[in-house]
Amino acid sequence: MILLNGSPETRIDIADRGFQYGDGCYTTMLARHGKILALPLHIARLMSNTQALAINVSNWQEIESWVNDVALSTESDNNAVIKVLVSRGVGGRGYSPSGCSSPTIVVSSHAFPPAYSLWKEKGINTLILDTQLGLSPLAGIKHLNRLEQVLIKKEVEERGADDGLVCDLNGNLVEASASNIFWRKGRTLYTPDLTLSGVEGTMRRQIIESAPDCGYQVEIAIEKPDVLWDADEVFITNAVMGIVPIRCIERTNYNDFDACRALTLRLNA
């Protein structure tokens, strides 16, 4: 199901700035039997991101009702993916946003990736990728400019891995192709600082907030990928797949998944 500004529609204006310039943001959510998990966090992130991009969206209650309508259409599915995309709307040629006063809101439903269930159960094999992320004042925002991720995913597929871990131009660990990363040493969880690069995921936030209840402290770290070779446990997270353990990075294997289990139980409680 697809709703464009609340109405069933599959076509968008060619002058829409989301298409022309990637001028907007989005969020991707998990719906379980038609009910979206952590919806307030996703709406809050959309509000924060549109504010940061100076996109004036005022009808948030209406948008939330559209989201719930699309989610309800997946009620018969155990799991489904719901995506909300916000663009600045239709504008003229050129970069200036002047005159764009009607944002475009697209809410769509998608099948749950079948690989995710197997990943959560068995874990994944990953690589440190050659593709790097640039440093950006838009770091943290889930904006529509995803060319870096396209190239990252292309490298993952070409190298035959389940996923890949990405560094920024300074060589510091940032994230995986479409998820955040955590590693554990003892009772401390570490996750990369996203001040200069990467996306602040809603599941990342839930992990940071829930970890103390599971007996773990969390530190935001600026580290090279070498730090992973000595980690007790490594996992990746996003809102759709949840928590996925990493079993292997390059030639380093991991067999301890205590934090994964504890946090998964905590979030599913």
Q: Can you put this structure into words, describing what you see?
A:
It comes from Enterovibrio nigricans DSM 22720. Its EC number is 4.1.3.38. Involved in the biosynthesis of p-aminobenzoate (PABA), a precursor of tetrahydrofolate. Converts 4-amino-4-deoxychorismate into 4-aminobenzoate (PABA) and pyruvate. By secondary structure, this protein is of the alpha+beta class. It folds into 2 domains: 2-112, Aminotransferase class 4, branched-chain amino acid transferase, N-terminal domain (D-amino Acid Aminotransferase, Chain A, domain 1); 117-268, D-amino Acid Aminotransferase, Chain A, domain 2. 28% of the residues lie in helices and 31% in strands. The protein is built from 7 helices and 15 strands. The strands form 2 sheets. Strands 7, 8, 9, 10, 11, 12, 13, 14 and 15 form a 9-stranded mixed beta sheet that branches. A hairpin with a 2-residue loop joins strand 3 and strand 4 (35-36). The longest helix has 14 residues, at 39-52. It is globular, with a radius of gyration of 19 Å. It starts with a strand and ends with a helix.
Quick tags:
six-stranded antiparallel beta sheet, BCAT-like_C, nine-stranded mixed beta sheet, alpha+beta, 269 residues, globular, Class-IV_PLP-Dep_Aminotrnsfr, 2 domains, D-amino Acid Aminotransferase, Chain A, domain 1, 15 strands, pyridoxal phosphate binding, D-amino Acid Aminotransferase, Chain A, domain 2, Aminodeoxychorismate lyase
